[in-house]
From TrEMBL:
Lineage: Bacteria, Pseudomonadati, Pseudomonadota, Alphaproteobacteria, Hyphomicrobiales
InterPro entries per record: ClpP/crotonase-like_dom_sf (IPR029045), Enoyl-CoA_hyd/isom_CS (IPR018376), Enoyl-CoA_hydra/iso (IPR001753)
Family of this protein: Belongs to the enoyl-CoA hydratase/isomerase family.
Family matches, as Pfam families: ECH_1
Protein name (record): Enoyl-CoA hydratase
GO molecular function, one term: isomerase activity
Database matches in PROSITE patterns: ENOYL_COA_HYDRATASE
Coiled coil: none
Keyword Isomerase recorded: yes
């Protein structure tokens, strides 16, 4: 596994840490591949009951690393592969038999925010700042959020968040239901650990069945939404306007 994603085991908990602090844990090829590998390993380990996803340094994850934009848009096939790799993380999180907790602090932007929304529980620290920048750049969101957010917070709020792309604080995340709980900055990981240990005491088959039933019942159109997102995101990545705006940012 790449050192840009560090996975450690603590009893029934797999701690999966995004570890590119010098780039605010921005998403690049090695990070996405490393996260996929870590999630796959946790899924295969019968002793692990809960996964906690968190970030090193000053951010959970600042979204797509725009320094890699040229590589991501070299040709349509490369763009398609990149977007599908990002979308695969959503599938791994949401179809996992394990409960996945997002412990979010600092910046949580774009694709990273979408991954957090895919998680079963979302703990935000008080210093969290989050937003969806994609539409502002002429791009599109991933992670199934066009389906997930609409059903969680309603179409009006979803349009506000995705189209306006404004930056928000942890209080807004709690008000909209994007955050399950907001906690002091210095207790984020302790709170995540306590939640994980509580969940780990529950019968694992029943927990997995509840997760699957809820996700399948509420989000029956998730795959269709993600297919549309993938096509729209690929188109967005390949437009000159979006590439120019991303480079300017």
């Amino acid at each position: 596994m790449s050192n840009v994603v560090v996975s450690t085991v603590e009893g029934p908990i797999a701690w999966v840490k995004l570890n590119r602090p010098e780039r605010l844990n921005a998403m690049n090829g090695p990070l996405v591949a490393g996260l996929s590998e870590a999630l796959e390993g946790a899924e295969a380990d019968e002793n692990i009951r809960v996964v906690i996803l968190h970030g090193e340094g000053r951010a959970f994850c600042s979204g797509d690393d725009l320094k890699d934009l040229d590589a991501q848009t070299a040709c349509e096939a490369d763009t398609q592969a990149w977007v599908e790799a990002i979308q695969n993380i959503t599938i791994q999180i949401m179809q996992s038999r394990k409960i996945v907790i997002a412990a979010v602090h600092g910046w949580c932007v774009g694709g990273a925010l979408e991954w957090a929304i895919n998680c079963d529980f979302r703990l935000f620290s008080e210093n969290t700042r989050w937003f969806f920048p994609e539409v502002t750049y002429g791009l599109f969101v991933t992670g199934g959020v066009t389906a997930l957010l609409t059903k969680q917070v309603g179409p009006q709020v979803t349009k506000e968040l995705l189209i306006l792309g404004e930056r928000h604080d942890a209080k807004k995340a709690l008000e909209t239901g994007i955050a399950w709980k907001v906690v002091p900055d210095d207790s984020l990981l302790d709170e995540a650990r306590q939640l994980a240990l509580t969940i780990a005491k529950r019968p694992c088959v029943a927990v997995a069945d509840v997760k699957r039933a809820i996700n399948e019942g509420l989000h029956s159109s998730l795959e269709d939404a993600m297919a549309q997102e993938t096509a729209a995101t690929v188109r967005g990545f390949l437009t000159p306007e979006a590439q120019a705006r991303a480079k300017e940012f």
